Every structure is written in C-alpha cells, then in structure tokens.
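Thread: Newbie trying to understand structure tokens

Hi all, I'm a second-year student working on a class project, and my supervisor (Dr. K.) asked me to get a predicted structure for one chain before our next meeting. I've only ever worked with sequences, so writing a 3D structure as a token string is new to me. If someone could post the tokens and maybe explain what I'm looking at, I'd be very grateful. Here's the chain:
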Amino acid sequence: QVQLVESGGGWVQAGTSLRLSCAASGRSSLTMGWFRQAPGKEREFVAAISWIGGSTYYADSVNGRFTISRDNAKNTVALQMNSLKPEDTAVYYCAAKAGPNVRNMEYSYWGQGTQVTVSS
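---
Reply by user tm_fold:
Sure, no problem. This is what the structure looks like when written as tokens:
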C-alpha cells in the first residue's frame, strides 16, 4: 500500500514563495503529481513528474511560477511555488500512479492534503 504524506503548507502573502513536500512509502518508481482544490471548486491538476528521466508537466496557471522536483533516493517530491497569488489558495494534494506518462491524470494514490492560503 502506498502512503503519501504532504508537508509545508501555510499562510503567506501574495508575491512570496512556499515549498511543499511529499514523502512516499510502500512503493517506488511512481509518477508523482500535485493537485489542488479551492473552496467550492473541483480538484485541478497542478504539476507532475515522472520517475525516470524527470519529465515534467504543468498546468498553464502555474507554469513559470511553480517547479516540481523529486529525490528518488528519498522517494520524495517537492513543489516550489513562487510568485504566489491569492487564487493559488487551496488544499494541495500529492498523488502518485504507475506509468511514466505525466499527462495521464488517472492517479491511484492520494495524500491527505495540506492547506495553502495566500493573502493579498
């Protein structure tokens, strides 16, 4: 069973940065992703990174501001969020799936989420 534990959420002001981390256990060699869900909205894709080769994929709304990275030795993935905006406020979820396609949105494993609040 794969377990994902997020950390690093918090309250920040617009224009600043925040770094989220996700530790995976139970299995390696997974494509990892980040999703978010704002109040009253559906969960949306943010970014993904493959296990081999480090291929990445970003939502248009965060491309150029957010960077996803991973440490395969530690089985962790991080999301560096820069130039944060109030509209980035959401619960951020770490997710994982088998297969290398970072554009495939069918994730099998999910973390509990961490709150990110960006004030204007």
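A couple of things are worth pointing out once you decode it. The CA atoms of residues 65 and 82 lie 5 Å apart. The chain has a mean pLDDT of 95. Feel free to ask follow-ups in this thread.
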